[in-house]
Design goal:
Elements: H1 10-43, H2 59-69, H3 80-96, H4 115-123, H5 126-136, H6 140-171, H7 176-181, H8 188-191, H9 193-206, H10 218-221, H11 231-256, H12 265-268, H13 270-294, H14 300-326, H15 332-359, H16 366-375
Helix pairs in contact: 1-11, 1-13, 2-11, 3-5, 3-11, 5-6, 6-9, 6-14, 9-11, 9-15, 11-13, 14-15
Length: about 375
């Protein structure tokens, strides 16, 4: 029997929940845009938005009104159907993820037994929209940005999924509500720090957030797959990015930080659970802002090598170690200690690999070296 929040038939109950989510998300996205501007301004010793409304609070509202009123143009040689549908295939899959993500224990649109896989699956569909935007725009920069986005998404989707499988092995469930309930005493990040690190890195790459923003790099591909979009259609790409940021932060809070269960979530009730979830998701979002302010954009070759040579082997190694430990059904304390120790060792190994790659200078091509010697 499916539980309903409002005592209505299942279909009406789900529709009301979805409308609530869409309404909340519209406000949340506008708030995130404002907060990112203010946080980045603080990091860069600026003021950020100050003029529109008190403390600049209405800046996002002004931007939304401007985009709605802006002329919606389309290139002459663009593929009309592909060009028009691309923003929807970026925007809609993001909101589908809210069906399974819990805002509190058992507070979601629907509790799914395969909720973790469902969220990962629908979050990867938007890459089709990026390809359609690049191809349908009839713009070389747009198609190059779309190809970069496809390569990056595929490369980082693998370690992301494998990291989540590692946590599901420890939790013995793919149901997000059950995973949250299993962290009532200790969050999963304590037992699985390496998957948590992989999740955060891959999260940035999946959303094309700095330093993984090569698909939309202004200095290289002008604006990426949506360079030809304007007005309300451009805003749908923007809205999809920030909505994805929020939903994936909720997912990270639920899977690694205990969601609304830790600490004292089940004892103190739903308001405390919602507060816990919002605070933990907010901490992940703040880390995204901090990362954007701290790291320069990676080159395409660096970005791809980082995934295939470091993150993917680390995620596979974590699954193998988890399987080797869990198969013997050791006492709970010893089992979790071994999981934590080996996962922490994986974090150190990933850090060492990154440090070595940064410390090693990039070899210069022979032709450039010869020219340099000739100039001397």
């Amino acid at each position: 029997m499916i539980e309903t929040l409002f005592g209505l038939p299942v279909g009406f109950d789900a529709a009301i929940r979805l409308l609530i989510v869409v309404g909340v998300m519209t406000v949340v996205v506008m708030a995130l845009i404002y907060l990112e501007r203010k946080v980045l301004a603080r990091f860069q010793q600026r003021l950020g938005p100050t003029r529109t409304g008190p403390m600049g609070l209405l800046q996002s509202v002004a931007d939304a009104l401007k985009l709605i009123a802006k002329e919606d143009v389309r290139p002459k040689n663009a593929d009309a159907w592909v060009f028009e549908l691309a923003p929807f295939l970026v925007f809609v899959p993001t909101f589908l993820g809210f069906v399974a993500v819990p805002f509190a224990i058992a507070w979601n649109v629907r509790e799914l037994e395969l909720g973790l896989l469902y969220v990962l699956a629908v979050s990867s569909v938007n890459i089709v929209g990026w390809v359609m935007a690049g191809w349908g725009s009839d713009n070389r920069y747009a198609i190059l940005g779309a190809l970069r986005a496809v390569a990056q998404s595929i490369s980082y989707e693998l370690p992301l999924v494998l990291a989540m499988i590692s946590v599901a092995m420890v939790a013995n469930s793919l149901n997000l509500v059950e995973i949250v309930r299993g962290q009532a005493s200790v969050p999963n990040i304590v037992w699985q720090p390496l998957p948590a690190l992989l999740f955060f890195i891959c999260l940035l790459a999946e959303m094309n957030r700095p330093p993984f923003d090569a698909p939309v790099g202004e200095s290289e591909v002008v604006g990426g797959p949506y360079v030809e979009y304007s007005g309300i259609r451009w805003s749908m790409f923007f809205l999809g990015e920030y909505a994805s940021m929020f939903i994936m932060s909720l997912l990270g809070a639920a899977v690694f930080l205990g969601g609304g269960a830790w600490p004292l979530g089940e004892e103190l009730g739903v308001p405390w659970q919602i507060a816990l979830t919002v605070v933990k998701a907010g901490a992940i979002i703040f880390l995204m802002f901090w990362t954007r302010a701290s790291f320069p954009r990676l080159r395409v070759d660096q970005m791809m090598s980082f995934s295939w040579k470091i993150l993917l082997p680390a995620s596979i190694a974590q699954i193998l170690v988890n399987g080797a430990i869990l198969v013997y059904q050791l006492p709970s304390g010893l089992e979790h200690t071994l999981l934590a120790v080996f996962s922490a060792a994986g974090v150190v190994s990933v850090y060492s690999a990154i440090n070595r790659s940064v410390a090693t200078p990039r070899p210069r091509p022979l032709v450039l070296a010869q020219r340099s010697e000739a100039v001397r």
